[in-house]
Amino acid sequence: MRDLAGDLSLLSINTATLRKQLALSAVIETCARRGIGGLSPWRDQVQAAGLAQVARQLKDARLVLTGYCRGGFFPATDAAGLRAALEDNRRAVDEAKALGAPCLVLVAGSLPDALAGKPSHKDIGLARAQVHDGIAATLQYARGVGMPLAIEPLHPMQGADRACINTLEHALDICDALDPGRTGALGVALDVYHVWWDPKLTGQIARAGAERLLAYHVCDWLVPTRDLLNDRGMMGDGIIELKKIRALVEAAGYAGHVEVEIFSDAWWSRPADEVLDTCLARYQTVV
Ligand code: ZN
């Protein structure tokens, strides 16, 4: 298992972690200044700053990307909606390529309009079929561009509105169906927050192997958790066995960055420097 103490080159900051405090350009600047090795930006932040400008700043700062967040949300109620989702995913693939990201992270989506609180139907089987087809079509395009796709299974509590792929096993089943040759074009973004509870986790991480493990996200699960989306914990403040899971991931061959991704009203209300100082300290001790 790799020793992270004193080595910030393997640390990546998902920019959602500081989205309420800093604009993207300031996140890039402060991460580079601290010697942090990687960054994973979100599309809305990149769009606000300008794609070309962000690409230039990342290059100048010598920060590598560890992913681009995010594509997905494939299900829709009609053909036009399905087409629009595919077009948007192709744009996301192109943006990821322009930024030099190693993969585009996919959050599958689930029941159409559920995110707005008004699901247009209850047929999760249909949503899953549309997700399968959407990933297949996007993979075809992404292969041509040379941009790997990383499916991120989400915790089942988000199964209605954000993702109908809720286990690593399900994500890997889709990978095996669409990329049986394990070419590196399709894999998973493994986020401890979403998978820590899974009794099949150990076996499925081994099954994934280096070819499928395209990104590794950390934070912690707080007890109690007060919000389904924005109450993630800082590493070490919750109950996830972080070192144990990282050992499994590295034993399976993962040699990439450790990406800190914390959606938290509590941490968003603190100064950016305090959040980053804490991330750095915890990354070196409890992750
Ligand atoms: Zn994640």
Offer a few descriptive terms:
287 residues, alpha/beta, TIM Barrel, 9-stranded parallel sheet, binds zinc ion
* Beta-strand content estimate: 5-15%
What is the string of SSEs from the N terminus onward? Answer: EHEHHEEHEHEHEHHEHEHH
Q: How many domains would you count in the coordinates? A: 1
What's the shape?
Answer: globular
Low-pLDDT stretches:
none
Based on helices, strands and strand pairing, what is the structural class?
alpha/beta
* SS element count, helices: 11
The level-1 CATH class = Alpha Beta
Bound molecule types: zinc ion
Distance, first to last CA: 11 Å
Task: Tell me, rounded to a whole number, the average pLDDT.
Answer: 98
Q: Percent helix among the residues?
A: 40-55%
CATH architecture: Alpha-Beta Barrel
Oligomer: single chain
Q: Cα-atom Rg, whole angstroms?
A: 18 Å
**In CATH, what is the homologous superfamily?**
Divalent-metal-dependent TIM barrel enzymes
- Biggest pleated sheet: 9 strands, parallel
CATH topology: TIM Barrel
Please report the total strand number as a whole number: 9
User: Order of strands side by side in the largest beta sheet?
Assistant: 3-2-1-9-8-7-6-5-4
